[in-house]
Write a structure and sequence with these properties.
Length: 146
Amino acid sequence: MGLLRMDNVAVVVDDLDAAVGFFAELGMELEGKAEIEGDVPDRMVGLTGVRTSIAMMRMPDGHGRLELTTFHSPAAVTAGPAEPPANTLGLHRVMFAVTDIEDTVTRLRTHGAALVGEIVQYGDAYRLCDLRGPSGIIVALAEELG
């Protein structure tokens, strides 16, 4: 089998520092920042004149990363409504397991997060919610019960 692991999920944001602050508050660690441009990224993503800033955020357990990318050129484009509904085609959300959903929501609100719906309980197994964060990113939180 050729698949080894999922290395990272990339998310395009309009304010890199705000996104880094949001995900740091969630508990991710900033692994590093870089400026990316030139022939290689142009060819990889199929655009001309790519110039981006990226920040790589690492999960506390070291087993996953989130690549936050801001496009300086060409400018980022909006694919649909600013706050797409849950049934929009494409990547819907990224879910994180947390130890205290209420505390996490409270902390993320200081970074502009807002609940999409409400915090719900799924049987005796989980408390769950969706938050809208920087650049409209939907982040789901799951607190395992018991």
